[in-house]
Each structure stands twice: as structure tokens, then as C-alpha cells.
Request: fold
Amino acid sequence: MSAVHVVLPGDIDDPADPSGGNAYDRQVCRGLAARGWTVREHQVPGGWPHPGHRERADLAGLLGGLPDGVPVLLDGLVASTVPDVLTPHAARLPLVILVHLPIEGETEARSLAAATAVVATSEWTRDRLLTRYRLRPERVTVAPPGVDPAPVASGTPGGGRLLCVAAVTPVKGHDVLAAALTEVADLDWTCNWVGPVDRDRAFADRLRERLTATGLDGRVRLTGPRTGPGLAATYAAADLLVAPSRRETYGMVVTEALARGVPVLASDTGGLPATLGHAPGGARPGLLVPAGDPGATAAALRRWLTDARLRDRLRHAARQRRRTLSGWPVTVDRLATALKEATAA
Reply:
């Protein structure tokens, strides 16, 4: 029986602060266990990726107590900035770092150099790591997120139920979306912003003030985080997912929407175009706009809200794309292969 130690952020199961990275980690831990692996989880609280002295010491103690030769899968949020903690154990432990979002810097370069293998969660991320750092390509594999099957959303005739699922932070582009919505205020729509609002309180407060000043506070609802059945019901009620991120390595919310046949309006940045993908016939199941461009976002929203034939085409493409999505078993199989190869190296 294979065994793996998994080092995870301490908030992995916090329903008040969900993230794509935490959801991914939880899925792969469950999946490995279901395949017969002995999975030993080690949740490490702290201000990752900027740990304090005590947090570094605790991680060093954890790694020091692990048996030789057993693979260790470390979430990149924990591992990418602590090369001094990883390097002393690199010769006796097969260290596999799971990179959701490159931090990009000298410390990450040294951390990844100490790893036996690196697993990226998208092709875009792998390409970025290979471009940024001196890593051997055979050491960096890709295990994209899966998605669970879901019923097709019915949608509404006018397409006015807009949805944005992301923590309210500058990188996720809520300010861009707010400006775009102001430009289409003459049309019929509502927009739910689902995600934590306390990661950047000042930013969220400014957005609330802006929404009130522009008269949109009754149409844009900041719901806070949702998980499980509540989040599933939110996706099922949506007509269009809007992902206005300034930077995104994959975008799990995109495939969550597509799994329900919901089209997506996304920024043309990072891994988002590949995640949106194409239907088997080549049609895009959504619209791409330049990142950080409120005018282009507003224009795309106006097209969606005023062109019934466009809505029909995108909904059809999204339902076709839905059939091509990979499930979590594919992700777990790729990760399991990486762990076995690291152990044998």
C-alpha cells in the first residue's frame, strides 16, 4: 500500500474562507485515499506564504519527524517561500510541491529546486514555471482540476442573472466588473458576488460605496462565501458567470459553470482561455475580454443581454463543452503518478 504525507494550509476546511486551491487539495486527498493510499494530512496554521519564525520552525519540525523515503506532497502556498526549511530534507524525502499560483521570486526558485518533482495545476502554470525558473521539464507535470458532474442550468429568457464567484480582492477584478455594470445599468440584470469579503476590507468597502453611489447596490449583492449545496444552487440559478480576474492560473469557477452549461464571460489572461476552451465543433462557450478593461467588459455584457441569438449560441456551446470536461479521478490519477515517480527517483 502506498503512503503519502500531505502538508496543507491550516484553513483548508474553513467554510468562511473557501478557495480553489483548498478545494483542489481536499479533492485530491479524498481521491488518493479512495485509491488505497494511506494519506497523512498535516495542516499547518500560519500566514502562508509569509510565515513567521514560529511557523517556519513548526514546519521544519514536522518534516524532521517524517520517515525517510515516504513522499511528501506540499501545497505551494506553504512550500514556495521556505527553501531554507525544505533543503535540509531534500536528500531523504521525495518532496513534491503542488503549485496553484506561482509566487515568482528567488525564494520560490530555491524551493522548487529542492523538490524532487513539481505538479502544476494548469498548462499555463507549467509553462510559466519553466520560463521563469531553471527546472527540467520532466520534473514538472500537470494535474488540472477536475469538476463534478451537475445538472444543466435552465437559464432565463433574458439572461439577466449574472454571477461572479471569487474573493472580493483587486486581483479578481470586482472593481472592473463594478465599472462595467455601471455602463449597462439601463438593462435588466442582477449580479451576485459570491465569495469572502474580508481579505481586503478596504477594497470591499470602497466597492460598496461605489455601488451605492451609482445606484447599483440593490442589483449587485455581496453574499459572502457559499459552499456545498448553497453554492451549487447559486450556479444552477445563473445565466452567465463573469470572471473578470486580472490574473488567473486556471479558474475552477469556469469549469463549475460549464459543468452546468452556463456560459462564461472571462478575462483573456493566464490560464482562463484554456479553461474556457472550445466545444467539440470549435465554438467558444463564452466571451473573452482584455483583463482590467471595464469598457470591453461592459460591451460584452451588453451583447449578452441584448442579443438573444448570441445567448442561444453560447448556451449551446457551453452544453457541448460540458460533455468534454474531466472529472476529479483524472486529476488524482495524474497526481498519484507524479508521487510514484518521485518516490522511485
Notes: The chain has two domains: 3-146+326-344, 161-322. The mean pLDDT is 97. The radius of gyration is 21 Å. Residues 158 and 308 are 8 Å apart (CA to CA).
